[in-house]
Amino acid sequence: MNSLRIALIASMRFPIADPFAGGLEAHTWALARALTRRGHRVHLFAAAGSDPALGARELPVRRVVLSAAARSDTSMPGTAWMEEHHAYLGLMLELARDGEDRFDVVHNNSLHYLPVAMASALRVPVITTLHTPPTPGLESAIQTDDECPVTFTAVSRFTASSWRPTVRAARVVRNGVDTDFWTPGPGGGDLVWSGRMVPEKAPRLAILAARAAGVPLLLAGPIADRRYFQETVEPLLGEGATYVGHLTRRQLAALLGTAAAVLVTPEWDEPYGLVVAEALACGTPVCGFDRGALAEILEPAHGLLAPPGDVQALATLIPRVMSLDHRDARRRAVGFCSLDRMADAYTSLYEEVTR
């Protein structure tokens, strides 16, 4: 296998650093490390504050100086939008100028539209991973050219299917977790919920289901939507529900390994569900709502799914999931959603497009 020079473009909304703001950041960090371990030269373009061990280069944020007339125009977007737009614009112009001399392939792992819209200006192949349901920015970027030159992957069959009206063929490469790091623990009697504290992840439903089942619940994750947390989650804490904070990956692995089961309660169609893979790798079965890609990962031996939003049905499943064999959960992670499988799939794709 030849060593490849890979430009890996990350989201600039949050640093690629532990503790991670979400699954996208955790995935990008793990992918960069896995490719580097395989001997590839990975150049990560990411937000300020990203892990220095990755050798990340900060996306080139230019403070745009606008006139008073421009700032007062009704079309004036927010400052964050302007900075993000100019960061990706600057990067893509730089890659168009000298990318061919520096890289063999560009892997766009961000959610921004410009790496797709400007891909035809580059003289190296561009791969974009679809991490979310369709967005207007990306859909319009794909249609910039009659034949979009980008090779697309999707993190699940469900996500690939949701993009099919615009992306006819996206190769499925599921997000993987390092099964040498996420390892089985002793188990325990508590339930765990992990994720961003936002409405679409619905931690409140996990609290209600755990309470109905009479099992203590520990919740972990960043408070990405403070108003939602304060108004919807915080009032439900107590009576067996405890928020333990925004944990590092090591702390989270330890927590998952001491759980009887993990609850996953999306109120949106989950494109993948990295927490499911992390839980399985820690030997912990999963109980959740049947939305999005969760049914692709889980089988009855290591996880059960209730109808979307049905808290009582979820509560009824909890005792059954707590009795599942933790060894089956671990076997599923190693065989289906390991970091090695993901890194091998991306490496094969890089070699294919560079040929």
UniProtKB/TrEMBL annotation:
Alphabetized UniProt keyword annotations = Glycosyltransferase, Transferase
The record's annotation in Pfam families points to:
Glyco_transf_4, Glycos_transf_1
Indicate the segments forming the Glycosyl transferase family domain, all copies. 192-328
According to the entry, every stretch annotated as the Glycosyltransferase subfamily 4-like N-terminal domain falls at 22-180
User: InterPro entries, from UniProt?
Assistant: Glyco_trans_1 (IPR001296), Glyco_trans_4-like_N (IPR028098)
Membrane-crossing residues? none
Recorded GO molecular functions are: glycosyltransferase activity
The cross-references to PANTHER family, in alphabetical order and at most eight, read: BLL5217 PROTEIN, GLYCOSYLTRANSFERASE
Name assigned to this protein: D-inositol 3-phosphate glycosyltransferase
Q: Which organism is it from?
A: Streptomyces venezuelae (strain ATCC 10712 / CBS 650.69 / DSM 40230 / JCM 4526 / NBRC 13096 / PD 04745)
